Amino acid sequence: MNERTLVKNLAALPDGPVTIAGWVETVRDQKKVQFVILRDESGAVQVVNPALRELPEPVEGEAADETAPARLATTEAISALAHGSFIRVTGELKHDERVKLGGLEVKLATLEVVSESNPETPIAADSSLDKRLDWRFLDLRNPKQALIFRIQTTFLHALRGVWVEKGLIEIQTPKLMASASESRAELFEVDYFEGKAYLAQSPQFFKQMAQAAGFGGIFEVGPAFRADPSFTSRHATEFTSVDTEISWIDSHEDVMALHEELLVAGFEAVVAKHGAEIQEHFGIELAVPSRPFPRIPLAEAKQIVADHGYVVPRADADMDPEGERQISAYVKETFGHDFVFLTDYASSIRPFYHMRHEGDASLTNSYDLIYNGVEISTGAQREHRVDVLVEQAKEKGLDPEELEFYLDFFRFGVPPHGGFGMGLARVLMLMLGESSIRETTFLFRGPTRLLP
Ligand code: AMO
């Protein structure tokens, strides 16, 4: 690695020589002194250079100042610096409370322009989201945008901590499949040698396979693909799905308990590590949600929003986005909670693999988790009795023959199990009060976006 000190570590160092490297944020080129704000991935610092605008006239009897040509060249190089160029600076660190930016500065000794930037920056702070996404690598240089992915790292690390501690196994499931794993409506078909393959819409079948394989519990953080033509703030054609599946459960309640535990651990870690930065950049005082999260059966939730004057358009359908917003507002007002589990979805609007209520096949052991007005997850206990599963598949118009490989999992002994899938970018969007998952996805993919 090239030697350098990260800007965030300068504060702890005594005055003395340092080497730093980063991007030119601004240059203030005054006659006698030049200021460069240098930003690396950890922060920004002021670099000062006493300017030498021309070589001093030789004075008779005095030796010429041998450092002058180099100082003149450095002054000229700073005057010519473009915003965004990557530079390496050596100099003297000096702590000085009067310096607004972090109470320290680096007095420049040498400057190396490692990689020049085009002087015309194609995006500005007020550029449209679409334009910013066109230039995503420049957009992500903004500390606020980069912070989102630091937070995501902390969040996922905390979830992994819970999973690993419980002995769950991390798996990577194939994204090329021979059949659909969710509704056929949103399926990407790709040429596959002489035939066709489909991009995985979720790891659903494979996470259940791991239960049949005796793994006990698994998790996966990986891509999922949906050929969804919509342009909403919450839909992508490719997204990162956080999935888990556990065996030997009594009902979906066990899945919800794990779901809560994971989220609380994730929020605890994020609040502890980034609470102040989130406040600074997003103006949000993030709090750790309390357990248990409120639970409301879907039918009751629809009744509640109806009583508040909003009738979900189709009585036999899922909550629509407005219904989700309204039930969230109700839960916030009534329970002071940002999360709500909507439970007991009708079998008619759930996939064939959801287990139905004992004694009332019209309802499923399933839930959606709503966070600040938007669905972030679906979870359920799965049907593990193969005869029931076949009947449910047929009822949904699926051909059991096409599902043979999946149905086989249930013909050789499989424990009762369940799990959930959660859209990572949605969680981040709602946590940080962002307006779209385009902001919280490293590289967004939508119907009209395949670049960069
Ligand atoms: P579902 O289809 O509800 O369930 O997806 C789970 C979660 O994934 C996210 N999500 C999306 N995010 C961005 N763009 C999309 N187009 C998109 N579609 C879904 C949402 C959603 O709640 N196999 C089940 C999960 C399970 O039961 O384990 C499933 O895929 O946050």
TrEMBL record:
L-aspartate binds at residues 182, 226, 378, 382. It holds the Pfam family tRNA-synt_2. One of its GO terms (biological process) is aspartyl-tRNA aminoacylation. One of its GO terms (cellular component) is cytosol. ATP binds at residues 375, 423-426. InterPro entries: Aa-tRNA-synt_II, aa-tRNA-synth_II, aa-tRNA-synth_II/BPL/LPL, Asp-tRNA_synthase_2, Asp/Asn-tRNA-synth_IIb, NA-bd_OB-fold, NA-bd_OB_tRNA. Signal peptide: none annotated. It catalyses: tRNA(Asp) + L-aspartate + ATP = L-aspartyl-tRNA(Asp) + AMP + diphosphate. GO terms for molecular function: aspartate-tRNA ligase activity; ATP binding; RNA binding. Keywords: Aminoacyl-tRNA synthetase, ATP-binding, Cytoplasm, Ligase, Nucleotide-binding, Protein biosynthesis. Its EC number is 6.1.1.12. The keyword Repressor does not apply. Residues 204-207 are annotated as: Aspartate. It is found in: Cytoplasm. Residues 149-452 form the Aminoacyl-transfer RNA synthetases class-II family profile domain. Catalyzes the attachment of L-aspartate to tRNA(Asp) in a two-step reaction: L-aspartate is first activated by ATP to form Asp-AMP and then transferred to the acceptor end of tRNA(Asp). PANTHER family: ASPARTATE--TRNA LIGASE, CYTOPLASMIC (PTHR43450:SF1), ASPARTYL-TRNA SYNTHETASE (PTHR43450). Belongs to the class-II aminoacyl-tRNA synthetase family. Type 2 subfamily. Homodimer. This is Aspartate--tRNA ligase.
